[in-house]
Amino acid sequence: MVRIINNPQSLLVVAVPLLLIVQLLLPLSLGLGVTLKFGQRIRSSSSSSISMSRGMKNSLEKDEEEVDDCYLTEGTKSIIGEMECIIGQDDGGRGMKSLIVPGDLLKGAMCVAGLTCGSTVLVLSGFPCCVTHDIPTETDGPPGALAIARAVVALGHKVVIVTDDCNKAVFDAACHGHSWATTPPSDNNNNRKNRNSLSLMTFPGNDKMTRLDRERMKDLAIGCDLIIACERAGPAMDGNCYTMRGIDMTSLGLIAPLDTIVQLARDTSNHNNHN
């Protein structure tokens, strides 16, 4: 099964509370013996969408809301709600309020907490909006993507960060320079294992995509269990990706068609569910 999380807020802000909530929810899948089995259904909203594919079967034994009501205290719910309110502040006046769906922060964390150990998670990132610079990468995505990758790896999963070719240098530096904190006892073997569980894959702009590139995308879509899109440029109705000021990043050749991976995962899910 592939679950797809698309978060419109800045990941640098979202990553820390999302991972704190994952830690709060770990007893649900570990200590309390509650197994979350996500089934053959598709959910969507303005701020997040989920589709199902390979790997985990059957319907949710407990819905997210039911698990929340049964095992989370009112105090914990209140803290999560406060985090969501902070994340949802639109200080820049960009109109993001209409994209926020109450409860999505908790549901996103539950997607991670409910993974079977050893799952493969894709983190799609990259918003090359600094179009006049040799390296057009903005600075929210890389540290946020690494923060999520670090937590997901610590939970026993593999992570592939996927971005555009033009962002490779920045994300590569972030991956190699990232500090892998380990649970005690901290040791080099554990650090080495963590580093081996994280990889980076990049793709060129749409006009430079080759058959091999499309095969790589297909392999990613088929082989993953969870897709998280964060601080990632998404296509407008005309298929192009724009900066906040309306600059067309796609026409400049900066944007790889990473949304294709999401669509391939959904298509694979639908095909498997009908067989």
UniProtKB/TrEMBL annotation:
It comes from the Eukaryota. It holds the Pfam family GLUCM-like_C. Residues 84-268 form the D-glutamate cyclase-like C-terminal domain. This is D-glutamate cyclase-like C-terminal domain-containing protein. It comes from Eucampia antarctica.
